Amino acid sequence: MNTKIRNICFALVFCFLVPPATSAGISIVGSLTHEKKSNPGPGDVYKGSIVVQNASAEPQEVKIYQTDYKFCFDGTNNYGPPGKLKRSNADWLSFNPHWSIIPPHNTSTVNYTVKVPSDPNLVGTYWSMLMVEGIPESSLQSSQPEKNKAKIGVTQIFRYGIQMITHIGDTGERQLKFLKTELIREAERRIFQVDVENIGQRWLRPLLWLEIYDENGTCIGRFEGGTKRIYPDTSVRYKIDITDVPNDNYKALMVADCGGDYIFGANYTLKFEE
Question: Does residue 21 lie within any of the structural domains?
Answer without folding.
Answer: no
